[in-house]
Amino acid sequence: MIFAIPLPVFNPELLSFEIAGVDFAIRWYALAYIAGFLVAWRWFISLMARPDLWPVAPPLDREAADRLLTWVIIGAIAGGRLGYVLFYQQGYYQQNPVEIFALWQGGMSFHGGLAGLVTAAVLFCLSQRASVAAVGDAIALTATPGLFLGRIANFINGELWGEPTQLPWAVIYPLGPASICPDHWLHACSRHPSQLYEALLEGALLCLVLAWLVYRRDGLKTPGQTTGLFFVGYGTARIVVEFFRVADSHLISPDNPDGYVITLAGGGLTMGQTLSLPMILLGSGVVIWARRRRR
Predict the structure, then answer these.
(1) Phi-psi region of 265 (alpha: psi -120 to 50; beta: other; left: phi over 0)
(2) Model confidence pTM above 0.85
């Protein structure tokens, strides 16, 4: 007997409308981004108002912190979109370059968004002569609720499918391509809720660990340490969850049935794992650098 939780049919669009013959929609995924940025901004402001958490003083005042929000929003959205285009659907967008700007159709890459956010934050800190390591620590901590909300939105959209399973908490996805979920095989539709795994590991758990480090272990007094641990934590969580997640459909082909991009001893690494490995290495190096620098 198969136990599984049927996923209700959520509408990924909260509201749709037409302007000058062009269809637009307000999607839950977009609202998750907005809510994530707002939570991060308010939390970031509260950190800047706590001089006791920092080695000397908060790296930014309130006015500068407000301006930083604009920089990181632009960097994260631009980087996320370009990362998706380059890492996941390069061929399609070479044929349809105008659709690169159709953000309302979806398609964002976390690793691209992270690269864009880091670039924007570094440039802003250099322009303000602020500590890149200290500002990065505050961003790393406050970004985690947004990761949680983004993965919940993926779950609502019924995207980023998990591998088939008969575990009691498996989810039956009512929608999906026949190649992934043939209607006549119930067990093929009972899948790992990989979006929720990512929400809990990359969002909730990572948030709790970093918050404990900052508020209980004076983590911000070692500039760079929180940022490094964020890279290590996210990269590790993403690599683990990828084992329970189906590769994006455009990465699957007859020659590449599992969506692997690198073959290793008969197995392989998914695109998400390939992009996460450098995060772990970089994060480990940053943690070592930060602790040695403090000593």
Answers:
(1) left
(2) no
